[in-house]
Amino acid sequence: RKSVVVPVRLFFLPRRCADRLALLCLVLIIQRVHGEQPSTHTDSMVEEVQKHSVHTLVFRSLKRTHDMFVGDHAKPVSLDEESHKLKMALKLRAEYSPVLHMPVLKEGKDKGHQASDPYGQHSFSVDPGHDAEYVITGTHPYPSGPGLALTADTQVQKMPSDAGVQSLAMALPPSQSRLEAGRTAAGVADIHRHAGSAERSQAPGHTLSLMEAGGMKNSLVARKAPTMPKPQWHPPWKLYRVISGHLGWVRSIAVEPGNEWFVTGSADRTIKIWDLASGKLKLSLTGHISTVRGVAVSSRSPYLFSCGEDKQVKCWDLEYNKVIRHYHGHLSAVYDLDLHPTIDVLVTCSRDATARVWDIRTKANVHTLSGHTNTVATVKCQSAEPQIITGSHDTTIRLWDLVAGKTRATLTNHKKSVRAVVLHPRQYTFASGSPDNIKQWKFPDGNFIQNLSGHNAIINTLAVNSDGVLVSGADNGTIHMWDWRTGYNFQRIHAAVQPGSLDSESGIFACMFDNSESRLITAEADKTIKVYREDDSASEETHPVNWKPEIIKRKRF
């Protein structure tokens, strides 16, 4: 088609001339569309353009492109060394900075023949002519440590409890240990359950000695296929009491060691003490000027500890019901605290990305545990190593060396914020909760055991009892009950909010078993405290385990 050159500069002409010129242009365009010949006085503004089909134009463009780039066709771009180094340095810093410089914690460095472990650990070294220190990890429930040298006197495995002897059998020869290594995480967890009674009481140094014996007679035994043990039956839990009294979200719970009362901290800035048997209010403590995010009752002294979003950490004397100490140092809101079970030490964690260790008596800041890159949401203490465990919004869990005040291990498996961590009361294991998964881990190095998937919400709190019931409470008000050993979700609860509250106010901020482990107390966003107990009328016939074995897929992430 012939193009029409249209005059554009109409703004400097008088209004009437501009209108006429615009009309003329419109007429010219219409004539061109209908194939008419324009009037002769516009021929000077028309240029001839040769007509081509779209097909021809596309292929002409394609040929030009081909001619231009045919020399470099399929030829990789040359690598610029400097750019590549810069890229790798940035990637290392951005993605792997928390684990670039890790302390080496290998007790045994002798590497002989090693049996593999289903958790990805090295098992025990087998070197017939060498009496080295043996690092024994894997299927036993005790922490790593230098074991006993294998001599004539130590040819029989010794266990601290009868249950452990029965479950772990006697000593395993090397070929049998390889058989055990073929088992899945759930199979190994079976051993944990049976040998659980003495696990937490043993110090990390008390490791086992394995018997180096057995020849080829066991090497031809058929290898067992991976099996998932059937979940243990647990009675369902039911709501039996709702306690009202707070004027804001209830954010934290702690039960007194004598199991007579429990304490709650709330967004109404008060701490309330309730009678556990009757649910009646005994006492209200005021002193915080913002939300109370954590409470803990000492088993070693008549003290109650609290922390809040006002950056304050307070020690209350329960004989006088007054604050007797303040612990100053955090630069932002303090989100959680925990007491060490055997020494007079308090650990707090904060939005300033640190956890701090305090001497309760002198108020001294013994250690500032820095390393997390975002809010530290939860902290837990235990007497065995590692003595401090923290979970953070930077998606990592850190295991800390309390003596050195440094990171012992960093667990980076979670993809989202870790807001809850719970330690098993008997086993040497723990669990962490995040919106992507609940994960179970083995101490002391944080070896991954298994995922508990299905609670698709922001998990604010976890609790576990000695029967192996794990409870997870979420921001949307749902509570899931799990069998600890197999990860089977046997119950889901979504309690109604109290009258006058919005449905969106059904959030679980904290939950805890009492010391008898027969009551579950939850702190909720509808300003209530709910108490649950086991359904006495339930049985395996009325509430059967709806369990189907699955193909084991040990997901690490």
Give the overall shape, derived from the CA principal axes. elongated
Helix/strand-derived category reads alpha+beta
Distance between the termini: 63 Å
Could you tell me the mean pLDDT? 79
Topology:
Layout: E1 3-4, H1 15-33, E2 46-47, H2 54-69, H3 81-96, E3 113-116, E4 122-126, H4 162-168, H5 174-181, H6 185-194, E5 237-244, E6 250-255, E7 261-266, E8 270-275, E9 281-286, E10 292-297, E11 303-308, E12 313-317, E13 322-326, E14 334-339, E15 345-350, E16 354-359, E17 365-370, E18 376-381, E19 388-392, E20 397-401, E21 406-411, E22 420-423, E23 429-433, E24 438-442, E25 447-452, E26 459-464, E27 469-474, E28 479-483, E29 489-493, E30 508-513, E31 519-524, E32 528-534
Antiparallel strand pairs: 1-2, 3-4, 5-32, 6-7, 7-8, 8-9, 10-11, 11-12, 12-13, 14-15, 15-16, 16-17, 18-19, 19-20, 20-21, 22-23, 23-24, 24-25, 26-27, 27-28, 28-29, 30-31, 31-32
Describe what this molecule looks like in 3D.
This protein is α+β, with helices and mostly antiparallel strands and 557 residues long. It is built from 6 helices and 32 strands. It has a 4-stranded antiparallel sheet, with no helix packed on it.
